[in-house]
Every structure is written in C-alpha cells, then in structure tokens.
Amino acid sequence: MAGKLTLAYFLSGGCGGCDMAIVDLSETLVDVLPRLEVVFWAPTVADVKYKELEAMPDKSIDVGLYSGMVRLGEQEHIAKVMRAKCKVLVAWGACAALGGIPGMGNMHTREEIFKTAYFDTYSTDNPDGITPQTRCVVDGKYELTLPEFYEYVRPLHHVVDVDYFVGGCPPHHSFVAEAISAVLEGKLPPPGSWITGGKAVCDICRRNPALRGEEREPITAVKRTIEGVPAEGKCLLQEGYLCLGPVTQGDCKALCPKVNIPCRGCGGPIPGVKDFGLRAIGAIAASLANEELVDQIPSPVKLFYRYSLPASMLGRKVK
Amino acid sequence: MSDWRPNIVVFACNWCTYQGADLAGSLRCDYPSTVNIIRVPCSGRVEPEFIVAALKNGADGVFIGGCHPGDCHYREGNHRAIRRFILLKRVLTSMGVEPERVRLEWISGSEGKRFAKVMKEFNETIMALGPNPIGRDGNGR
C-alpha cells in the first residue's frame, strides 16, 4: 500500500483495555507506526476533537477501529460519524462486536440501573434524588447537556454497518498484530466477517483430550472456579469447570485454560455460529452426564452470554 | 385480539413423534390447525438456536417431541435434548419469556391419540398466554 495508512480509533463504551492491547504491541507498534497516521484517537491517545473528525471529508480515513458498545447518544453519534469518514470500519473487541461485559446490563431496565447506581449503593448519598438529565440549566443561565443514556446496550453493527469484527476482551496483542497487518496488507476476508484464525479455543488448548487421542467423557460435576484446583493438563470441562472453549474463537491461544481459568467466551463465536450463548448451551448441556447437573449451573444467562447478550437473538430481557 | 390465533411450531422426531402425528391423522383424531410440524431426524437435532429463532420469527409456542427415554433411534439423542431443553428454559425464564411457551414431551409412534391430546393442551396454554413478547413486533431491535 503506497503512502501512509490513516487510522481513526474511538473508545466508546469500553474500558480502555482494547486501547491497551494496541499499546501492548510495544516494539511491533514502533515498526508499524511509520506506515500509520493516526488522525483521530479519542479520548485516550490523540487530542483531536469531535468537530475536527466531523469536518473531515467522507471516506477520507482508511481504517476506523471502534471499541466499546453503544449505550449513550454520544457513542451512537460518533459511530455514525466514523462510518461516514472511514472506508473500513472494524468493531474492535468483544464490546463493539458483541456488547461485551456491559451488555449484561440488558438484563435490567434503565430505571433499575439508575436506582442501583444513584440510590441503592452503599456509598451513594443522594438526598435530593438527582439522576442524570440530558439538559439542565445552572444559575439560571448556563445550559449544560449530557448524552442520553439509552434503555439498552447495542453492539456496533446494530447501529451502523460494520466491515469486520474482532473479538477478545481485549484482543490478544499477538493477534492485534496479525489483525492490523492483515488490514495494512489488505489481506482481508469478505466484509461482514470476523477477523479470526477460525479455530476454537479447544483446538488450541493443550488440555483438550482429543489432541492426546483420549475419549471425551461426560461431565459428572458442575464446579465453580473457587472450588478445588483443576488437575494438571486435564480438560477443565471434564473436570466440571464450565469452559466455553468449544464455541469460542481461539485467537487468544487458549490463554485462560493455560492458567486454570475456564474460557468465558470473550473471543466471540467460532465461524458458523450466529448466537454464541445458545450454541454454548447446546454444547455444554449435551456434555452433562445427567439432568440434575443442569440445575446446578449458576446464573446461566450471565455465564453463557457474558460477552454477547446484546448481539444475541434474545438481545435483552423482556419487560 | 379476539380473533388472534397462535402460531405453534412442533419439532417432531422422525422415529417417534412424527409417526405419532401420522397415526393421529390415520385415526382421524382432531388437533388444532395452529400446529405446524417440522420433521427432524431426532429431538437431539433441535438446537437451542432453532427454538429461539422460531420464537423470534413469529412462533408463539415451540414444542419438541422425541422418543421415550431409552427408545432413541440414535441411542442418546433425546437425553441430550432434555438437558439442552432444561437449560434453555432456565435462560428463557431469566430473559422474561414465559417458560410455558416451550414444551418437550416424549411421544412414541403408537401414541397418536396422545399426540392429539397434547397438541390441544399446548394450544390452550399458548391461547391463555397470548402473543409471544419476543416475536417480530415485540422485542425487536
């Protein structure tokens, strides 16, 4: 690709971990930087204002990375601006691609969330019962505004068209390098796809019994991670620690199972899976040895949809 | 609302429940015309996605019919089906969907009368619940 590739990055409803994943490239980033020109990176890295982004010509930016889900009016606005200005728009990380951890907020209404955040929490002192308003007038003359807090969390592709999806919470930095060089070299799959190696966490995980030619046994116990210690080198799922590796993209190189933590699905669904949580329910439930074990799974929605509730078919709790 | 008719999707296992539905027909048993049968190789073939996709796309109730435990043509497909079903039902309940909208029963090829009876019952359950809240016009994006 001739000349410099222009990049815009926006941290939306996320936590900043995806920004960190790019910074974690360290020396690789230094190699890549001469080929990149960051024209917008708010609010963490570059001091470019929204109005400057809005003033750029349409389709003038080569690649836009959008990290974080859409909960606020401001986030929706920038998503639309990014879509207009960027040739390629990437939903960067689990929140933008699936809704992410904040997506579990879709189990609750806005009123419930405000009640907890501004009234019920132990450290809250709110005698006047003030909740965030989109407009207020201070001293009778200064009008202040806040973005609207929408009823539900949405992944980026529910707001604008998205060209590529990258999973991970955050994406593993070695995979960040692969994804960014794929973009730089134009080696991209058809628009609308996930950028992924296509393998499941189990395919990569060294605990997988199939890779050692062993039979996969039914799961005979359901354990939480605080119960006991998983046996060295044994499949976590077979040990009873509900691991979502069978349906999760393994671009993370199976990092969590390596350190005794079952996969929670941040990488996003393996190719061909539309609804991560439902496929996980199918995979895990069918592996259980009996029906009684099903009732021992704590909070199934927040286990199977930990990162993907807003992007799922159900999407949010029915009122 | 008074002329509302439910839309019921029935996933019927090829070896038992579908034969039961066939027998119900041969025996001239009445059951509601709201029932739409989809023949599947096994109740274990019914993935949770199928059930939720049906609910999202206009079904008011989803019924899964399989062979009695121990009778599965593929030995354990129905055992898998019930485990998935129980787990999915817990998830649907947490998501605010009435758990009565989904039902799983073991109906064999000789139980034609029972098939008709269960369909009538399920139709009444769905009639009482009313239209599905997560259908096309409900919980859409």
TrEMBL record, chain A:
<dbReference type="InterPro" id="IPR006137">
    <property type="entry name" value="NADH_UbQ_OxRdtase-like_20kDa"/>
</dbReference>
<dbReference type="GO" id="GO:0051536">
    <property type="term" value="F:iron-sulfur cluster binding"/>
</dbReference>
<keyword id="KW-0560">Oxidoreductase</keyword>
<dbReference type="GO" id="GO:0016491">
    <property type="term" value="F:oxidoreductase activity"/>
</dbReference>
<dbReference type="Pfam" id="PF01058">
    <property type="entry name" value="Oxidored_q6"/>
</dbReference>
<dbReference type="InterPro" id="IPR037024">
    <property type="entry name" value="NiFe_Hase_small_N_sf"/>
</dbReference>
<protein>
    <submittedName>
        <fullName>F420-non-reducing hydrogenase subunit G</fullName>
    </submittedName>
</protein>
<dbReference type="InterPro" id="IPR051349">
    <property type="entry name" value="Hydrogenase_assoc-protein"/>
</dbReference>
<feature type="domain" description="NADH:ubiquinone oxidoreductase-like 20kDa subunit">
    <location>
        <begin position="15"/>
        <end position="182"/>
    </location>
</feature>
TrEMBL record, chain B:
<protein>
    <submittedName>
        <fullName>F420-non-reducing hydrogenase subunit D</fullName>
    </submittedName>
</protein>
<keyword id="KW-0408">Iron</keyword>
<keyword id="KW-0479">Metal-binding</keyword>
<keyword id="KW-0411">Iron-sulfur</keyword>
<dbReference type="Pfam" id="PF02662">
    <property type="entry name" value="FlpD"/>
</dbReference>
<feature type="domain" description="F420-non-reducing hydrogenase iron-sulfur subunit D">
    <location>
        <begin position="8"/>
        <end position="130"/>
    </location>
</feature>
<dbReference type="GO" id="GO:0016491">
    <property type="term" value="F:oxidoreductase activity"/>
</dbReference>
<dbReference type="GO" id="GO:0051536">
    <property type="term" value="F:iron-sulfur cluster binding"/>
</dbReference>
<keyword id="KW-0560">Oxidoreductase</keyword>
<dbReference type="InterPro" id="IPR003813">
    <property type="entry name" value="MvhD/FlpD"/>
</dbReference>
<dbReference type="GO" id="GO:0046872">
    <property type="term" value="F:metal ion binding"/>
</dbReference>
